Amino acid sequence: MENTHEARGDRAQLCQRCETRPASVHMTTVVNGEKFDRYLCEECARQEGAYHFMLAPQFTIQHVLGGLIGLNPSGQRAAPIPDKQCPTCGYSYQQFAETGRLGCDRCYQAFGNELEPLVKRLHGSVEHHGKVPRRSGQDILHQRTLEDLRAKMREAIAQEAFEDAARFRDQIRTLEEQHVESQGSQDHGTV
Amino acid sequence: MEPFSAWMQAQGPDADIVLSSRIRLARNLKDTRFPNHMTADGAQTMLARVEQAILGVQGGWALHFQKLADLSPVNRQVLMEKHLMSPAMMEDPIAFRAVAIDERESISIMVNEEDHLRLQVLLSGLQLSEAWSVADRLDDTLEATLDYAFDARLGYLTACPTNIGTAMRASVMVHLPALVLTRQASQVFTTLAQIGMVVRGLYGEGSDAVGNIFQISNQVSLGLSEEEFIHNLATVTQQIVGRERHAREYLQHNAELMLADRVERAWGLMSHARIMTSEEALRLLSEVKLGQDLKLLPATKSTFAQLTLVTRPGFLQSQSGRELSASERDQMRATLLRKRLQDEAQSA
């Protein structure tokens, strides 16, 4: 036994079946009185039928996430897992707590109150600052530009740079008018 | 099929240490169940929609769309070994899954992995911004016909909340033999964890770092822009490359004989062994590569990334055209490596 450890050293040994994942299972089989030793990963060991008994569930991000759900910062379970379902896809919050995965994009709305603190804990933020879909996100892009300009205008006023502020105000007006026009041309018929 | 992907020619910046740069974007369709909650019918409808969108892509992307069910298990494994597919794609439900790949094997789109779409761009060396610009354009092209699940506040919505926001993973695959030899690697990785970077092995989540190959990626995907996440990872990678080069110089100045002995032994074993496990091969290849980088060993035409692929079980079986037992693979692996080292070193 000790020899085996010595030979392996502190280097990770690869599964002898898939040769991809690390070996974590030492499997001994006896065929016609002859003993065979193999080092396999959990997945291959399972496929070779090594487990007639149930293994402890894998330690994956989903499972860790499942554990985080519903915990308050001191690590106590703040509230029982709510008995909620997504009205669009029927996925339950219980299923999310078990798998760490949601059922559809609308689940984010359905479980919004529960997800918000979790997202904050995972990412340290709940505000997306990255890319917006080029075609379908035009409205959002427009809103972002407007917010940007409004912030600049407020800043300019605070610094009493009124000429700059007026310039930003004009830009905001032009953008708003353009948007109303393009909306109008898209929606005509329905309005 | 070309046996190697274009990035494996190792012509990118710092490609001696940074084997590859990868950008992966997760995208999901609006009002459609995520893959883990799909019905068989829903999955087929969704596959058809995505196939149409991918085949309809204009502008010279030349993507080849394949349902996984139409690929043999060995060919699926080869795609995984070439990093064109994640290990998760190898598991059921195979029938729901597909992959689209370009000719250079630089771009791949995984369909119905954990998310509906996972767009990936893989380039040689440290080229994260370049990979992002390709991924960004491909994303726009697909979005022209597909409606994505997107929220103004949370960004791109994904099956697992760990990926929302930019839904981007930027990663680099680095070869750090000198940091491991000088026992600095674990300290470097601890520091990386503190600044929100994850370190994994050769095949991503759940795989170990054999052959001193590590994958470093951003942990968080929400709160910064894609460019900011990429800038952070690129900066950190440059520092790691610097540390690795410094450690190599240190070894050359302070332990030259030990170093030469080590890499020459690896070369000797690899050019003479008749039976070799995949684990031993990766370990020796890493040492041979270090020896070549430091000009202690002759160069070979085959790159490290190519030779690494040659040792993989799926690749060996696809080359031989039949299934091989583990002991047959060990023999074939030793033969292929031995030949490549002997022939190429002579002609080089």
TrEMBL record, chain A:
InterPro entries: UVR_dom, UVR_dom_sf, YacH. Residues 143-178 form the UVR domain. PANTHER family: PROTEIN-ARGININE KINASE ACTIVATOR PROTEIN (PTHR38430:SF1). This is Excinuclease ABC subunit B. It comes from Sulfobacillus thermotolerans.
From TrEMBL, chain B:
ATP binds at residues 20-24, 83, 118, 169-173, 200-205. Catalyzes the specific phosphorylation of arginine residues in proteins. NCBIfam families: PRK01059.1-4. A motif (RDXXRA motif of the pArg binding pocket involved in allosteric regulation) lies at residues 329-334. Pfam families: ATP-gua_Ptrans. This is Protein-arginine kinase. Its EC number is 2.7.14.1. It catalyses: L-arginyl-[protein] + ATP = N(omega)-phospho-L-arginyl-[protein] + ADP + H(+). Appears to be allosterically activated by the binding of pArg-containing polypeptides to the pArg-binding pocket localized in the C-terminal domain of McsB. PROSITE patterns: PHOSPHAGEN_KINASE, PHOSPHAGEN_KINASE_C. Keywords: Allosteric enzyme, ATP-binding, Kinase, Nucleotide-binding, Transferase. GO terms for molecular function: kinase activity. Gene3D superfamilies: Glutamine synthetase/guanido kinase, catalytic domain (3.30.590.10). Belongs to the ATP:guanido phosphotransferase family. Residues 17-247 form the Phosphagen kinase C-terminal domain.
